[in-house]
Amino acid sequence: MAGKFTKNTLITVITRVLQLILGIGTSVIIARVLGPEGKGVYSLALLLPTLLITFTNLGIGPASVFYLGKKKYSSKEVLGANIIFSGLISIFALMVGLIIVFFFPEKLFPGVPQEYLLLALSLIPLQVLLTFVVDVLLGLQKIKKYNFIQLIPTFIYLILIAVFLLGFHFGVKAAIIAEVLSLFVGCIILFINTKKETGGIVFSFTKEIRKDFFSYGIKAYFGNIFSFIHYRIDQFMLNIFLNPTAVGVYSIAVGISEKIWLVSQSASTVLFPRVSSETDAKRLKEFTPMVCRNILWITVLLSLFLCLIAPWLIVLLYSDQYLESILPFRILLIGAVALAGSKILANDFAGRGKPMINTYISIASVVLNIILNILWIPKFGIIGAAWATAISYSVIFLINIFVYAKISDNKIKDILFIKKSDFKYYKNFLLLFKNKYLNLKK
Fold first, then answer.
1. pTM of this prediction?
2. Taking Cα atoms as reference points, which of 268, 353, 270 lies closest to residue 67?
3. Is residue 97 within 8 Å of residue 220, measured between CB atoms?
4. Which of 325, 187, 181 is nearest to 247 (CA)?
5. Strand, coil or helix: what is 287?
6. Rounded Cα gap, residues 306 and 55, in angstroms
7. Per-residue confidence at 150, pLDDT binned at 50, 70, 90?
8. Distance in angstroms (rounded) separating the CA atoms of residues 275 and 281
9. 317 and 329 Cβ atoms separated by less than 8 Å
């Protein structure tokens, strides 16, 4: 279990690193060409479809991964059901989005032109379809294909951003169009490959499938909603209390700090279907703590390194227009470390069929985050927002640790601190990798 998990995690990490490089390239171009205000408007425009998707997806993606792991439905049935779900959810989300854009744009998105918000809505059906279909590959544990296909839209997006912004000096509208086009191409490639992997499509939308998917999905849905609110409420509130320029500066700090999640996201992504399909309670009890403690300390080391080079990194990539991002970035690293551990434990809960635990924990942390933002943003600006996020993320992790220890009957020290056996595992894995590599060379 551990060997295959590590291999799949490494594949996912490598993919995330490539996405990170491509994403940084895209972010640098957007930040430099559009400037802090334009970057803020762009971020806020994309926040609308992201909000709508998050609030309407009903947890269908996690449900499909869970039931594929349990082998209750065939991959053909799940693919067909997910396509139907994506169509219905997209229609509803678009209707809500149009109401917001035409009747409440200035109240909810002050400073963002209406045409940008309308254009951003076109991302909804593409993003929903992409997410629901790629989750079929994850549920089947086709990790290589799952990761490779997700690289394609990121790569195309970078190329289009470079052409539109650097080549033709277009603005925010062109940046949004670039994302629409990249997702469109990604959806086509993903659909062809997933259909090949499942061996076809059965458009099954039976009462049993709907009941099962809604029953599990709605539990994951509320957790995902509150997690997303936690991730993005600070930017929304900064725009209300301050302005889009503040959002643009702060978004750089958020964007870079979230990049260190690539290791924990990779591990938690692979962990979810593994836990869902695992039948040996002893292996499961030992496995998740091993993953959590190792991912946690890898993230700590990455954070310390990034904290040291923060001034050089931000100025080099984004110019001295974003010097104010340095301190918020360093503060957010505290929360990023805490959330890295939380992601592992949260996906263990989901894999055990207990996603409501994540919902309850997320609700508590979101309430804390909102209160702290209200208190600190007017007084301390983006620094206050950063501290509110760092503290609330840390609270999530602390609660997750205690809840997981109780559910799994593990000791807290086994969840948090590296053990000698971990180094032995690393040694054995490296030897196995070396021998396999040498055999391939021969």
1. 0.69
2. 353
3. no
4. 325
5. helix
6. 33
7. confident
8. 10
9. no
